[in-house]
Amino acid sequence: MSIVAVTCFVIVILITLIITFFAARQTQSAADFYVAGGRIGGTQNGLAIAGDFMSAATLLGTTAMIFTSGYDTAIYVSSAPIAFTIFLFLMTDKLRELGHFTFVDILVIKLDERPIRIVAAITALVSALMYLMVQIVGAGALIQILFNIDYTFAVILVSVLMVTYVSLGGMLATTWVQITKAILLLGGITMLAILTMAHFGFDFEALYSSARSKNELAGATLDRLVIPGGLGLDTLASLSLGFGLVFGLVGSPHLLMRFFTVPDARAARTSAAVAMTAVVYVNLIIYFIVGVAAISLLLKLEPEFLDATGQIAGGTNMVAVHVARVVGGDVFYGIMAAVAFATILAVVAGLTLASASAVSHDLYASVIKKGQATEQDELRVSRLTAIVLGVVVIFLGLAFEGQNVAYLVSLALAVAASTNFPLLILSMYWSGFTTKGAVIGGIVGLVTTLVLMVLGPAVWVGVLGNAEPIFPSGYPALYAMVAAFATMIGVSLLDRQVATAR
């Protein structure tokens, strides 16, 4: 256990808890809790979106995937700018003008409120819960190697902190935790890039030559840095993965919710532009420097980075922090471990808030109480939901221990891509969209995604222990999206024909 690393970790925790304490004193109403009263500035919100977006998959999972699969990780890296371009040109103005607390508020403008809120809240809750599970897996592995404690206790610790941030501070605390995390990550990744390049004499050729040499020593059959094939994807699987990442991000409840925290559409556009700039900057450094350095420095590495079984300590998800230790020593290792943990805390706070809002605002206040719930009752349900979610993600984090967090994110985003995104885009841009089409299509998208996910490699083999998956592809998004869109459009057209005939 590194004393410096632990000290940095504790400092980050204390800073975020102090932020939460002060935010709790200013969180009085439902608007304060859900959207910080709509008073966050465009640049601030852009940094918060970046902090909300750059999850454990960004720093830990993407670096790990470059380490194991190389070139093919470009699919993950390129999805962010495409998603934010869609946000910028198709979504921001309408989100800010039509939304209130959650993206479901937009759907009910044209569609019947009760059935839509039930379906959309369920899909939002499922996608956010799966995303939460990804963060818990990454955080558990990080704390496990940092404190040398059991993975189970690490997962419990993160879940307790997650519930604390959201139940006490709401969106205001979440926003400032996310801004703090974004600044820490931008500074940390810049310093990591500088130290890494200094390690190789600021010579890209030396960095890549070293990585290729290690690749050959490892017995790789192809140069994973320049030749595709590391993920073993065929054309259809690549398309399915790409569609899931891009449209899943656009349909992520915790990102959509952030556009309701600004005062106007102009600030919403600024938010998207600032967030895209920050995310692209971090992804480029990870893809071209940190990931390559991981291959160069950690493939065929020294025993100090291995566990008792000869594998990388903490699993491949931890290669980014191991690189920090190689190029910057224990002090920088501690700093980057703290930054990685801040990254996870910010995302779990946003996801938990989005999940709690789906239950308290969309289901409890709007459906069960039919708009008659008091703000105090609504906030109480939000906080109770956060506690229940904390318990659920503990079990999910334990079930998916050791899985690559970037891959798990692709599964979580597949749910959002096949449910939330079709619901939102059709309700915004197609006047013929009907309630029946939305409800049936949303259910078809969700069920298709979950069934294919369970029958696929991640669950059928990785969790349930079967020898071969029933559904061969690990990426169900494309299939589920086609099913959802086809059902929504087809049922809506039939519904309108029946209504016209009457």
Can you put this structure into words, describing what you see?
- The chain has a single domain (3-25, 39-403), classed as Sodium/glucose cotransporter (Up-down Bundle), CATH 1.20.1730.10.
- The chain has helices at residues 3-26, 30-35, 42-53, 56-69, 74-98, 104-107, 113-147, 151-199, 204-217, 235-250, 253-258, 265-298, 319-368, 375-399, 405-418, 420-429, 435-455, 457-461, 477-501.
- The mean pLDDT is 79.
- The termini are far apart.
- It has 19 helices and no strands.
- The protein is mainly alpha-helical.
Distance between the termini: 73 Å
Radius of gyration: 22 Å
CATH architecture assignment: Up-down Bundle
SS-based class: mainly alpha
Shape: globular
Average per-residue pLDDT, rounded, comes to: 79
What is the CATH fold-level name?
A: Sodium/glucose cotransporter
Q: What is the C-level CATH assignment?
A: Mainly Alpha
Instruction: Give me the count of strands.
Output: 0
CATH superfamily: Sodium/glucose cotransporter
Number of spatially distinct domains: 1
The amount of beta strand, in percent, is under 5%
Largest β sheet strand count, sense and barrel closure: none
Write the element-wise H/E pattern from the N-terminal end onward.
Answer: HHHHHHHHHHHHHHHHHHH
Helical percentage: over 70%
What count of helical segments does DSSP give? 19
